[in-house]
Amino acid sequence: MTEQSKIEAAAPADRAASARRNALAVPWSAEFEASEHPDTARHRIQRDFIMTVSGLSREAVDKRYTYLQRLIDKAKEELAHARTASNEMRLAAMQSNLDELVAYLAGHGIHAKLPNRNGENGSPTIAHFFVIDEVPAFLGELGFLVDQWYEKEMVKVHDELLKLTGLAARMR
């Protein structure tokens, strides 16, 4: 028997012996080696759920905040057009935009007092329009109120996250 054939003949016996040794050293099955521990799986699934729920909540708040900021930017553009144009159509467009903005904000619990109207101070054709010099301060106030609303909504998302993780009970 050649040296090579002796090695080949001994190889299956060595494999069987090493498999027996490994089988005795490992108390669990081969399927368990590739699986995840039940507690680890529970924590991973719980974390994924919590991150998904909080992500959805935050995404909704972010979308509303972005929309509100766009409405304010649109109102600023209308204000610029109303200042440069001397016709009533631009003033009416600005006023319509501000009315829409205030109504939408009121739906989110943000209440703001509209700027004063021209009334008897201006010509009779523009008496029912807003005083154009008060609109920038009004838009600045709205921006501030929207930022405060956003912070409150983010606190709600944070509190929801604490409840889902069970940290709210531990922090008391």
Unreliably modeled segments: none
Determine the oligomeric state from the structure: single chain
For the biggest sheet, the summary is:
none
Strand content: under 5%
Number of domains: 2
Number of strands: 0
Quote the distance from N terminus to C terminus: 80 Å
| Secondary-structure-derived class | mainly alpha
**What is the general shape?**
elongated
Number of helices: 6
Helix content bin: over 70%
Radius of gyration (CA) equals: 35 Å
Average pLDDT number: 78
Order of SSEs: HHHHHH
Features of the shown structure:
single chain; 172 residues; mainly alpha; 6 helices; 76% helix
Give a brief rundown of this model:
The protein is mainly α. The chain contains six helices and no strands. The protein folds into two domains: 35 residues; 129 residues.
